[in-house]
Structures are given as C-alpha cells and as structure tokens.
Amino acid sequence: MRIPGGGPSAHQDSFAGDRLPPPGLMPRFDYSAAHLQGIPDRVNGASLLIDGAIADGFANKTAFFCGDEALSFGALQDRADRIARVLTEDFGLVPGNRVLIRSANSPMAVACWLGVLKAGGVVVNTMALLRARELVYIFNKAQVSVVLSDIDLAEEVELAKGQGEALRHVSYFSMFCTGAGDLDRRMERKSGGFKAVDTAADDVALITFTSGTTGNPKGAMHFHRDIMAVCRCWPRVFTVEQDEIITGSPSLAFTYGMAAFLMYPLYFRATAALLPKPTPDAILDTIERRQVTSLYTVPTMFHALLEKMNGRTTASLRKASSAGEHLRVRLWENWLEKTGIRLVNGLGMTEFLTHFISESMAVEVPGSTGRAVPGYTVGVLDDEGKLLAPGHKGRLAAFGPTGGRYMDDVERQAKFVRNGWNVTGDLVEQDADGRIWYTDRSDDMIVTSGYNVSATEVERVILDHPKVYECAVIGADDEARGKVVRACVVLRDPRDAGEATAKEIQDFVKATIAPYKYPRDIKFLEELPKTLTGKVQRFRLRTL
Description:
Blueprint: H1 15-18, H2 45-55, E1 62-66, E2 69-72, H3 73-90, E3 98-102, H4 107-118, E4 122-126, H5 132-141, E5 146-150, H6 154-160, E6 169-173, H7 182-188, E7 204-210, E8 218-223, H8 224-231, E9 245-248, H9 255-267, E10 271-273, H10 280-290, E11 294-297, H11 299-308, E12 319-322, H12 329-339, E13 344-348, E14 355-358, E15 371-372, E16 377-381, E17 393-399, H13 410-416, E18 417-418, E19 421-430, E20 436-441, E21 445-448, E22 451-454, H14 455-463, E23 468-478, E24 482-491, H15 499-512, E25 521-524, H16 538-541
Parallel strand pairs: 1-10, 3-4, 3-5, 5-6, 9-10, 9-11, 11-12, 12-13, 24-25
Antiparallel strand pairs: 1-2, 7-8, 13-14, 14-15, 16-17, 17-19, 18-19, 19-20, 21-22, 23-24
C-alpha cells in the first residue's frame, strides 16, 4: 500500500525534517481505511482548512466568536494572509523555519497558526501559562526563529528571548487586533491574497511539546497530511455539522483543543466560540449567549459546571465530549441527570494529534473509554511487547494514520514505539467487544484536571527551594480532579514544617514553571521510604 506524502519537500530550512526519528523507529502508519483514501502528495494544512472554506462559499459565515467579536471565514483568511506576508516580507521567514505562538484561545491565535502554515513555517504552539524557563527550553530545542505572542503575555517572553539561540524576531499582537501590538500594525500595512506554500504532505507542520517523564518536554512532530487525516477520523464518531456552535476549555496549545476548536470547525465549516479564560461561568455564559451545540472539556470542568448550573440554560447543547483524564461513572450519571446529555468519553494523545479511542455517541457502556476510532487499531501489550488476549490487563498500544514522531529524541522514540505500535503510558484492559477499560498510568505522568504534569519536573523545581532536602512527587487520587500533584518533602530543618512553608513551596513552583503544575497537596516527612537499593517507594507515598 502506498503511503501518501511523496514528492520533494518545500522546506528550505530542513531542521525539522532532519530531526525526525530514523525509519527503523517510526511507528506503523495505516491509511488502508476507505475514508483515508485520496490524500494528495501535496497539501498545505492551512490552505486545506481556510482557503478550502472560502472556495466552498463560506466567506461570509462566522468562523469564530470571542467575547463580542464575530470573525467570518473571509476575515480570518485575510488576517492569516497578512500574517504570512509579515513573516515572509518583514521577518525573512523561509519554509521550514519554526514559529512559536504564545496566546490564550482567540481568533488571532488561530490566524497566526494559519498564517505560519501558509507561509510554509512550522507551528510551535505553547500554553499561555508557561514561564520563561520553560520557554527557553522550547526556543532552543526547536531552534525557534520567530515568536508571535499576545501582548498581554509579553513578560515571560521578554525574560526568555535573550536566551533563544536562533531567535531573530519577537512580535506582539492584541487579542482583538486593535493596533496595540506591533504585529497588528504590521498587518495593517499588508494586503491579503497570500498564496500558500506548496508543501509536501509529509513536510512537518506542527511541533507540539508535551510533558515528559524525565522532566523535559518532548516535541511531537506532525505532518500536513496528519491534519487532513485526523479531520477524517474521530469526527466520524463525534460528528461535526455545519450548523454547530462549538465551545469548551482545552487550550489550542493542546492537541485536544487544537482539533476541537480549530481544525474540526474549519474543516467542517462550523463555528467555534473561543474562550481566553474558560472558567465554568464563562462556559455557561457562552452556551447561553451563543446557543452552543457541542461542548469539549475535561471531567474536572464537567464537575465544576454541574456545581454552577442551577438556573442556567443548556438546552441548546446536543452533545459533549470528555477527554484529558478518566471519566468516572458517577460524574457521567450526574451530567446525564442534569442535562439529558450522554457524555462521550474518549482518549487522545499529543502523539496522535487527536482521539484514537472513543465511545460512540450512544454511549452503550458508561465507564468504558470506548473502541478504536475508525482508521486506528488498538491493542493491549504485555511487558515484553506481546499482544494480550481480551480480559488481560496491560499497556495500551495503537497505530493508525498518525503516530509518535519525537523530535531529535531517539531514546524516547525507542521506548514509545515497539514493533510498530505506539505504546502509551496507560494501563488498560480490553473486553471481548473491543472496548478499552482504563486502569491507571504506568509512568510518573500525573494527569490532573486534564493537564499532563511530569512528577520529575516538579521534583526538580522543589529541590531548588533552600529549605528542601529531599522530595518525591506523585499523583494522589482526587474526586474532582482525578489526580492532584502531591509533594512529599523532607526539610533541611524539620522545625520549618507547617502551612507557611507549604505555601512558600507552592508559590516557588508557581513562579518557576506553569502554575497548573504546583503541588496542591504537600506532606512533610522525616524521611522518604526507600528500597534497599535507595529507590523511593512511591507506592507507599500514595497511601499517606
């Protein structure tokens, strides 16, 4: 079978392509499904999404709501084209250069994403919460040459930019393109009508950094054809219709949010209501104001929405997607009782760019994670990488049209890909009907409120605190958040133990790395439980 994506690369800067995993460590890619046929050898993901919508006659339709702003498909295309011109004409961007985007969810963030891809650049999306220390690592790992940032998030960029080895330009925009940022003003001087670079389908389009179990984030690489492929897969299960209004909480920097609020709405010519600050009240207000039909969020947020829902109207909702962490049956039942909507549970990964497992819209068996999304194959492997029969617990693995390609990280790639399978960090069981039942994580990744938090990264920061002698970080069970970050700390002076020091440590973490990673639970111990070889017995810390 021929894999699409042939032809010469359009990238003049070959950095990203040169750092793909070697062929022997690539996962198996499967395009045999009927709905994955016909992906061309040349495709630009941004042109597919926005230029395609204009060609189909949707220029005047609203693509995005954000606050009081309503932006049409045509206006979005114009913004993206002007940004592409700024990048190429003012900043000298050549195809293959990496451009980091730093923003909360907004139409301008989407326009930047589209503009970078149309110009042939590689998008590096980052969360608004990241601190300078984290940005510097990404700058240099991806050799970022341009940063496009919301002006309200300039502080950490300014602290970090002097340490970017390849960084040539930093440009700021305002959320509603009011002229407050230099990018706004540069765009005003440009015309639209930018012709998208003729990228190969297998040119790298996206590098998405996700937390790694060793503390440093890993860069997952995705091609232009991956954008097209995922738009043809999960929406076959969790459908997207042209008349829909979509909203939710995941950041565009997460592939869950990128797919739900950018790729799917544009591809299916629907409308998304973007929330820069997706609080429960903001989500409920938006559902009422914009008559939202489809809600994408995480179990923690569904729990919070239930707490705030009294007196609110959610009658416009047709469906809701839950992902990012395990969905508990009691929450599923409470949401159904309150809204009449059956939450559709599913599982995706940064490495896959979208869901590869999902319950059906009917949700026949609440509590299940679901079956393989059409186009993907899932299985359960033992510790030796052998496929287990149904009814046996093991490591979740999958392959399909997308899969793990870690940038310049052979060691991680070799651990993630085994015999063509992408092996996740999830412990699961598959039943005779093919449904996946989630048990736990097999690594030190903590999934809390839908965020992935590396225990090792948090440990490293806490150990920099002058009062801390030893530290071990784990995930502790929590009804609302699934897991919370727990730090088990041995102090240099035990007399410092108490609420004041706990708050010091929490504030120290918040000031050093993204605030969502801070330990909500701190336990002070005289010593950490260890094996005879000196390894921390984390299972004992979970029982505290």
